[in-house]
Amino acid sequence: MARIRKLVAALSRRGPHKVLRGDLAFAGLPGVVYTPEAGLNLPGVAFGHDWLSGSARYSGLLEHLASWGIVAGAPDTERGLAPSVLTLASDLGTALDIVAGVRLGPGKISVHHAKLGVIGHGFGASAAVFAAAGMPSRLAAAVSMFPAVTSPPAEQPAATLKVPGLILTASGDPKTLNSNALALARAWQTATLRIVSKAQPGGLVEGRRLTQAIGLPGPHRRTQRSVRALVTGYLLYTLGGDKTYREFADPDVHLPKTDRPDPEAEPIALEDKIVALLK
Asked: Which run of H or of E encompasses 125?
């Protein structure tokens, strides 16, 4: 456990690589891409943003992944009041095509076609599930961070997934009307559910956001540090094949900065979520 604590502590800080930032628009898709300064056959991910957010609200997370040698592309589409989860899922696939199919930077950066994943937060976390279901044999892993209810629901494609997955939630998040983390974990048989200690599901978004004006949570640094460490370690193993981080993908290993899920927990009914909301 002491070794794992050291790994988590190290992964919560920036990695050893200098980071470059590029524009996905050169390939016809609004968005950004973050890469380490150099490296061939790197792991790569496409990232989906939350409702009323965009890639700029996750620059710290994307830079963090790149600093640890993971290329991260993030489309800046579906940012309106009524976004389409299916369209964002399609755009995640397009972003992954760009990341994996184009020699990035000054020709010193490339992504390996067998080291690809999709990740997302909130609304984008559910979009990542749809994206993974749309390319079942192409991905090495998928990550859903504090997933949110969408229409159509992400539980349907999740039930078809065979790809390894990581679902992050907070202790009180499953009781909220917007969260579908537990239902997603039950449907997605190859995913590991982890509860991030003292996390705020909306706190992953960086900087001020429009929803703060109506009382929704703003950035939460503890959440950001914990999630960055857990996700980076998971991706370094599942995509990069680095056995140093094997435990990050082992559902039987209790990681620092997480609480143990209750294996006997019953599904939370809609009426119970409404009662929790009114308290």
From this structure: helix 123-134
Residue 102: CB atoms within 10 Å:
15
**Which residues are bridge partners to 131 per DSSP?**
none
Distance, in Å, from the CA atom of 52 to the CA atom of 78, rounded to the nearest integer, reads 8
Q: Is 78 in contact with 242 (CB distance < 8 Å)?
A: no
Q: Among candidates 16, 49, 90, 67, which has minimal Cα distance to 202?
A: 49
Q: Choose among 181, 196, 194, 135: nearest CA to 160.
A: 135
How far is Cα 31 from Cα 199, in angstroms, rounded to an integer?
Answer: 27
pLDDT digits (tens, 9 = 90+) for 178-190: 889 999 999 999 9
C-alpha to C-alpha distance for 143 and 220, rounded to whole angstroms: 20
Q: Is-contact 174 151, C-beta < 8 A?
A: no
* Cα 4 from chain centroid (whole Å): 21
Going by the DSSP 8-state scheme, the letter that residue 76 receives in this structure is: -
Contact call for residues 181 and 193 (beta carbons, < 8 A): yes
SS3 194: strand
* Nearest Cα residue to 192 out of 227, 141, 241: 141
Q: Report the SS3 class of residue 210.
A: helix
List pLDDT tens digits, range 222-236: 999 999 999 999 999
Count of all residues that appear for the chain in the document: 279
One-letter amino acid at 29 equals L
Q: Which residue has the tokens 């009114």?
A: 278
Contacts of 129 (CB under 8 A, 6+ apart): 89, 142, 144, 147, 154, 157, 158, 161, 184, 188
The CA distance from 179 to 72, in Å, is 25
